[in-house]
Amino acid sequence: MEKNINITVKVWRQNGPKEKGRFETHKVNNVSIDTSFLEMLDILNEQLINENKEPVAFDHDCREGICGMCSLYINGRPHGPDDDVTTCQLHMRKFKDGQTVTIEPWRSAAFPVIKDLIVDRRAFDKIIAAGGYVSVNTGGIPDANSIGIPKADADEAMDSASCIGCGACVAACKNGSAMLFVSAKVSHLAMLPQGRIEGARRAKAMVAKMDELGFGNCTNTGACEVECPKNISLSNIARLNREFLSAKFQD
Amino acid sequence: MSKINARIPEGPLAQKWTDYKDHQKLVNPSNKRKLDIIIVGTGLAGASAAASLGEMGFNVKSFCIQDSPRRAHSIAAQGGINAAKNYPNDGDSVFRLFYDTIKGGDYRAREANVHRLAEVSNSIIDQCVAQGVPFAREYGGLLDNRSFGGAQVSRTFYAKGQTGQQLLLGAYQALMRQVELGSVTMHTRSELVDIVIVDGKARGIIARDLVTGELTRHFAHAVVLATGGYGNTFFLSTNAMGSNGSAIIKAFHKGAMFANPCYVQIHPTCIPVHGEFQSKLTLMSESLRNDGRIWVPKKKEDAEAIRSGKMKPSQLSEEERDYYLERRYPTFGNLVPRDVASRAAKERCDAGFGVGATGLAVYLDFKSSIDRLGQKTIEERYGNLFQMYEKIVDENPYETPMMIYPAIHYVMGGLWVDYELQTNIQGLFCCGEANFSDHGANRLGASALMQGLADGYFVLPYTIQNYLADDIATKRMTTNEPEFTEAENAVKARLEKLKSIQGNRSVDSIHKEFGLVMWDFVGMSRNKKGLQEAIEKIAVIKKEFWTNVRIPGNMTGMNIELEKASRLADFIEIGDLIARDALSREESCGGHFREEYQTPEGEALRKDDLFAYVSCWEFKGNDVAPELHKEELIYESVKMVQRNYK
Q1: ipTM passes above 0.95
Q2: Which of B111, B371, B379, B437 has the fewest Cβ atoms nearer than 10 Å?
């Protein structure tokens, strides 16, 4: 039933990538527990605007957990205290009356801060551009049902393909590794006959790009899998390692 | 001569597209390299067009407002994509898909465009499979289909409840491949703020870098807008927070016609509104109506008891429930088109049978399907949707029926385009939801993805060449031309004006007030008096906005409030257009329901003798009423009849 809580928000403010950041503390009172976390930030921003202050900048778009735009490191966890959700689907019922909520941007060398809680994740696009696709042009394609794919493979590929590219895996990793992100794409395509053909080249190119962009190494801590809002499995990393090794042997 | 010429090719309907392609002008490979194309938006239409044109060898400049092209709101489409493959052998065909789309659109779409859409639908599925889109499959390894509203065949391909995501990632990956190959230049966090016209032709855009606040000039031989719909005019909608109508309003200001603005789709199955700080509404896919049954209590006392929390829905027996869609429409049942399902829900709630704390909700119940198929099957089909519902509402839909209510979801209206997807400004093209062309007055489920990809993969890459072939001699411009300078100065002046208002109200507070006027007077049902009142109220809100909005921060650097303010100013104009269009259309059709025009059973009553046309609005100046032009709709292959889903 309807219940309201008061919270203290400790939020990261930073004017630009080269500026020094700091925490700012604000009270947000009388928030309905049915409010989403981002709606709570909307309320805070409305307060700030009414006080003639600059609102907190944060990334968000679809607000239904699929676009991958929202981020936020909340009380030490990417996407906050609830499991299997993005920040936009986190609700205030997961917080207690009187609680202090600390909000920080993703912290990773490969994701520089643009402003406040917004980071630059274009490194992910560059990794995809390096090889995260099947090299087919539009048109001249055989009938869709000319390739049969076992249901189990299609389902598994779908699980890997459900990565939303939010970057929580990188933010959760003490090494700032993008292995879960890269492996999800490599696995999705490697499991399908259409993508199998370029499997070796793709794995090598994407891993090389990841290394070049300053992401850290994977030391199998598994933190990425725990924090992934879409439950992308660590088994993808194992598959990437196999793909990568067999590609190396082919060289 | 009329300003409206759809330039539909001659010949029999089924031959038009083939004949067009056989005779259109093409650009040879060495000339393609010399031609620049700007594509604004990276949703299904924009990303697929950018990738395809890049592959062909054109020099493409792609723009999106998000941090990555992969974020566009197509990603949130859940249920599926239609195609006339007839894999299930249930009698589907290109003609049937065409016919269902025309009928679903309540006979207000252009026949030739819709037939082409149905023709290319099958190639889309082939293309996506080749890209590695993991569509759902049967145990035999072939593709699975599900059914959707407004059709009696199963023609919808899907990837769990994330079809839009998977199709968009396919297009995005194809796009990034072209970025890597150098044929596409990507501009992220960049917003179109004006279109540059030189000698009557679209020759470029002014963009605002959302990180630095800098205005930048970009030349192209042709400009394509694929910027999606304007559903956020209503503040609360299922659209992403950033979705906006600004690009098409800029085109409108430059002389492009805005077609059918009042055709707004209200989706029947969304999670109901919960409170005043709600920022958006969440859709529950139409595919749920395959296995969910919609009902409200038969007796008002029971509805009241449920609303006050004294009774649970599970306590009501089958006889005490009113499965009102199955009752009113036995043939289509829960799978009637969206406009019909939405109005039926409103009718029951207005009559006092609604549930939920506000009484503005109906049940979508999976119990009989779970009993029939088992929870595991339902979980496989809709698991992610059920999880999403539970996270938002904090109730388990496997045990308690979902509560749903209609919400603004999609717009059928948009920029007017001809058969080639070109607006009435030469060199300015428009595809996907941003144009008006294929859905008439109501879009069928799983057809938005089909149209976006049809336009981007298979239509625009052909038709744009017919225009560009005459432009191969045009040299690239430097962007120092007076037209670019003028456009940039006008944008700068407008943004400075917004910033200088320094009033007392946040952008959102004005947008919420405006959105409520839109929903109450220009929403699911409309009438003359209400629409006239809305137009006056919108004018008052417009004045309030331009005198009392407050935008903190600076002109340089990232300023999200400034972005929002600029978009709201445009939404207010669109709101005015929607209301004017709704007022002038004195009939009910599809998503446009005028209370004065209904059958005795409460169904939409069209007036084909008077209104079988596309309303095309021409901008006449700020605070001046726009001028209405008409494109007559002529049906050669189907007969216009009263829609019947009984």
Answers
A1: yes
A2: B371
